[in-house]
Amino acid sequence: MRFDLTSLNIFLAVAEEKSLTRASKRAHLAVSAISKRIAELEHRVGAPLFTRFARGVELTPAGQSMLTYTRQVFETLQLMEQELGDYSSGIKGQVRLHATTSALAQFLPTSIETFTALYPGIKFDIEERVGAAIVRAVSDGRADLGVFASRTPASDLETIPYRSDELALAVAADHALADREIVRFSEVTRYEFIASHAESALYALTTQEAAKLNLSLKVRIRVSSFDCMCQLVAGRLGVAVLPRHVINIYAQSIPIVGLRLDEPWAKRDLQIGMRDFATLPATAKAFVEHLRVPDM
After folding, report:
1. φ/ψ (deg, to 5) at 261
2. Whole-structure pTM over 0.70, yes or no?
3. CATH fourth-level superfamily of 94-162+269-291
4. pLDDT tens, 191-236?
C-alpha cells in the first residue's frame, strides 16, 4: 500500500478543518480535487475515512488511525529536514537522551561536557525519567539512548555498561546515627524515610531489600528529586538512601552527612540502552562510544 505526501497532506487538512471547503482553501485546491484525493485514499485503504454531514465531515475509526500515523509521518519529515539542515550548516545533529536522576546528578554532566568539547555543534534533548519509562521511550523510538540501573528490565534493548555508583544513608548532621561511619540497612529501617517516587529504581531496590529482611520502609515523605530529599533530611524529617556522590555535594552546603551502607546491593551499576547500535544515528553512535570511556 503506497501513499503520496500530497494526498496525506490533503487528508490532514480535511481531518483538521473538518470540512472539504475549508480544506480546499487551506490547500489552495478546488473542492472537487480535494474530494477526489480523499476518495482515492479511501479506495486504497479499503474503508471510509470520513463520515459526511451537511455541514462538514468527521473521522471514522479508520480515519482516526490514519490521522495518528499521518501526523507521525510529517513530524518525522520535519525532524529529518531540521537535522539535514544542521548538517549543511556544519552542525552534526542531535542526541535524544533519557536518563535516571542518579545518572544525571553524578556522571552524565561530565560526559556531555567532554563530548560537546569534541563536537560543539551537536545538540542534546535530555529528559529525566525513571528506569521503566526510559526503557519504554527507547523501545518506541522517542529516545535514541537511555541510561538507567542495570536492575531495570530491558530485554528488548541492547545494553552496555556505563558507570557504577555507591548508595549511602543520608542523615541530618545531628541525627542519632550521624557519628557512625557505617551502618547495616536492618539498623535504619526503624527510622522514618524520605523516599523517591514509587516508580524509581532506587525506591524499588530499597523496598525489595527491606522485604528480604521481613521489614518494610516507614515512608514519611515521597519526593521526586534528590535536592528535595536532601533538604528534607537536613530538616530532620527522615533519613534517605541516596548515591554517596550526591550526599557529598549537598553536605557542603546543608547539615547532612552520609553513612556507608554495609550491604552488597549498595554498589550499583548503570547501563546505556539502545534499540540497536548498528542503526543508531551517527551522532548517537559517537556519543555511545564516548560514554564507553571513563571520564578523566
Report:
1. -90, 120
2. no
3. Periplasmic binding protein-like II (3.40.190.10)
4. 999 998 887 878 888 999 999 999 989 999 999 889 999 999 999 9
Between CA 163 and CA 120 the distance in angstroms is 24
The list of the chain residues with pLDDT below 70 reads: 1, 82-83, 85-92, 294-296
User: Topology of domain 5-88, per CATH?
Assistant: Arc Repressor Mutant, subunit A (1.10.10)
Q: Could you name the CATH architecture of 165-266?
A: 3-Layer(aba) Sandwich (3.40)
Q: What is the pLDDT of residue 101?
A: 86
Contact by Cβ (8 Å): 70, 7: no
- Chain segment 50-80, per-residue pLDDT in tens: 999 988 999 999 999 999 999 999 988 887 7
Q: Where in the chain are all domains bearing CATH 3.40.190.290?
A: 165-266
Distance CA 225, CA 249 (A): 14
